[in-house]
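Deliverable D5.2: sample structural annotation.
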Amino acid sequence: MNRQINTAVRTYPFGSLESYDYVVMLSRYDGKYLLSRHKGRTTWELQGGHIEHGESPDKAAKRELYEESGADSFDIRPLCDYCGEEPGRNNFGRGKVYTVEIKHISNLPESEMAEIRLFDTVPDELTYPEITHAILSYKR
């Protein structure tokens, strides 16, 4: 199921927002995009998730990356912040975005993810297309 919501996603320089709910990683391995597929979906997504209480965004990013891809050796760098807005709601998601160059992937740990796959280009079948495209088009 592709999540089609009428949302607007804005990007900002990394560290611009005052608080964060999520982390998202734009991951590459062997020159290709590495995307994950949730067990309950047929669509693909960037690795990421909620920042747990008391957890720093940097720590959450490394944890979510491993849980959703099995990546255990990587270089991670800040890219940008994002804020998603939906009509009738205030900001529904504020996140920190990182770029990741993965060096090694272990087996996918037991999690909500069913599989990972490498792509030359990001596919059309995305779980969060607005967020993914905003991140891909971010210019430093």
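Annotation notes: Residues 8-136 form a domain with the Nucleoside Triphosphate Pyrophosphohydrolase fold (CATH 3.90.79.10). Residues 57-69 form the longest helix (13 residues).
The annotation will be released with the project's public dataset once the embargo ends.
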